[in-house]
Amino acid sequence: MTQIRAESIACTNVEHIKPGNTNGAWGIKFYNFIISTDDIWACDWSNPLYFDFHGIDPDLFFDDNGRVYVTPERSIWGGFSKIIPEGPHIYKRGEWYYLLDAEGGTHEGHGLAMARSRDIFGPDESWPEIAQPITLSLPDKLLTREPVPQKADPRHEPLWIRNIDLTAFEPISFVGKRQRNLQGMISVNLSLSQSIGGTRMKAGLAYYGDEHRIARVYFKISTVSVWTDVRNSGRRPSILRNREVVKLDKHQIEHAENIDFRIQFTEMALDLQYSLRLTDGSYDDGWVDAGSADILDLTDRDFTGPCFGVFATTKSIVKGDGNGVDPALEDGSCKAIFQKFIIE
């Protein structure tokens, strides 16, 4: 039997069940559990104690009489907005139990709301005077001002905010930047003479909305060619366009030094381009259009916005294209050398 110790956390694991077991649709199964410890700094947590609850974001409440509550599902308040109330937390102050929840979904309607009751089991009531959430996105009600540049002195030595020095961190796992403008250009060059890849390695430049929405232009080692991918697997039906743009000929292979990639973007489209630079410094054909992507094909209800960045991988998003990890990765022999990552 699992013993509940002094410090406890309630949490949820969510299992996404693949189609085939759910009549062609993705299914979801929830595993709610409690873990506990006597010392939160010791990294010594108990085995999970599972309890039956069809949902996510459970919470524990520790009353001032020593009792700890986690109960079956019950309705004690409908929420302020009545739109997807979730993630409840209960606090006690004086004789009142205060219920804090999130409402309105996780996008533009998101907000926090609070209710109270003298009984832990409810029913709860909204704030009697103004009956509105604590925080809510109301742009027309906000007052703003320009920040005044300041420095802080921590008593011993001056301290200023500065750009982080990334050279101290190896290996770097992310090289990219979040999109800040509706129009711009991202470019990078990939060294063909210095990069070493296994049979499946591909490397290039990508637009990354999330794990479902990707557009990229890249060089593929196995075919010695430039490819483009445009994908939105969150759509129904899904979008997946994978195309070989050009295969390098013998002369290009022998004399190529770098291949430059560029993505020009507007609020309407992404233009994917490449340019082959030869060992004598000249360009084979200048900038060549590899394809384009309609922004509408990559649009969804964004949470933090898309990023542009470089990538190198031995995995594939296209069925039948050699999914899996290249054995060359096991001895560290795969290496992609990028230079001049520029955002304009």
TrEMBL record:
GO terms for biological process: carbohydrate metabolic process. Keywords: Glycosidase, Hydrolase. Residues 159-315 form the Beta-xylosidase C-terminal Concanavalin A-like domain. Pfam families: GH43_C2, Glyco_hydro_43. The keyword Hydrolase applies. GO terms for molecular function: hydrolase activity, hydrolyzing O-glycosyl compounds. Belongs to the glycosyl hydrolase 43 family. This is Beta-xylosidase C-terminal Concanavalin A-like domain-containing protein. The lineage of its organism: Eukaryota, Fungi, Dikarya, Ascomycota, Pezizomycotina.
